[in-house]
Amino acid sequence: MQKSTIQLLRFHFSFFLMPIYWFALSQVPTINWLNAVIVFIVLHVLVYPASNGYNSYMDQDDTPIGGLEQPMQPTRQLFIVTVVMDSLAVLLSLLVSRYFSIGVFLYILVSRAYSYRGIRLKQYPIIGFLTVVVFQGGVTYWLVYHGCSETLATNAPWPTILAASCLIGGFYPLTQIYQHEADKADGVTTISYVLGYRGTFIFTAIIYVISFGLLAYWFLSTLQITGFVLLQLFFIPTLLYFFYWANKVWKDIAAANFKHTMQMNLIASVCTNLAFITILILNLFE
After folding, report:
1. Which DSSP letter does residue 181 get?
2. Separation between Cα atoms, residue 249 and residue 99, nearest integer Å
3. Is the pTM above the cut of 0.90?
4. Per-residue confidence band for 81, with pLDDT thresholds at 50, 70 and 90
5. What would the pLDDT profile of 202-229 be if each residue is shown by its tens digit?
6. Are 144 and 161 in contact (CB under 8 A)?
7. pLDDT band for position 64 (cuts 50, 70, 90)
8. How many CB atoms lie within 10 A of CB 77?
9. Residue 282: pLDDT band by 50, 70, 90 thresholds?
10. Separation between Cα atoms, residue 160 and residue 137, nearest integer Å
């Protein structure tokens, strides 16, 4: 396995997408733990890294990308490995259910359409944004909820699906803020580029307010009061860094750089993952 292939799969980047898994798992009434392990492996060990790798194969990045400050140049091997990983993901998904397998297959197709230069959904600011929000957010939440449920439930609560989409919707534009020029040079107009540096922070704040409104409605209506309070407490470091970074960007747009973006991603991911894992543990022992 070539070093560039391993690097560009960006396995560590799956951590940033993990809160949706723990959120969904924490809300499953009765968990099938074997399926929960399979679902985790399918998404975080196979599908997400393969998607990262394929995106790098298409983009041929020579500037920083999510999780990598100095990406290597991809080779044909990277493409082959992503196809193998996606195939394994679909086959392994069949152990959970046919609906889960179909969902994973659709996710892979959309992920390819997002990056493939013949379609390139990512080049359109609104379509690209909605593609990520819907599939990394709501669709992934439904897949985890369904796949990890003992009864393979298909009726995941709508407020949680919308909240998951908004969590990704608030997170995603910030990951693009340091890439405006590189993306534009590649023919890609991102939602962050359209919003501008300050607009990206304002938009993120609005989406997160909507997300936490939905979370408040769901947690309070299902009497998960303690869980909701814990979620607010865990989110404090993220809010503090968000406003600290926004203030720096307001004064100098040079602060909208790779370093601050990755620090924001790491803090938000650590806090959100810990919050939903804690809520999961509380629900298990109720």
Report:
1. H
2. 44
3. yes
4. very high
5. 999 999 999 999 999 999 999 999 999 9
6. no
7. confident
8. 14
9. very high
10. 10
Residue with tokens 């959100």: 272
Q: How many of the other CB atoms lie within 10 Å of CB of 187?
A: 10
Q: What is the 3-state secondary structure (H, E, C) of 49-99?
A: HHHHHHHHHHHCCCCCECCECCCCCCCHHHHHHHHHHHHHHHHHHCCCCHH
Q: Which residue has the tokens 């997408």?
A: 17
Q: Rounded mean pLDDT of the chain?
A: 94
Tokens of 197: 């540096």
User: Is the pLDDT at 106 greater than 90, yes or no?
Assistant: yes
* Cα distances (Å, whole numbers) of residue 134 to 128, 256, 274: 10, 26, 23
CB atoms within 10 A of CB 220: 12
3-class DSSP state of 190:
coil
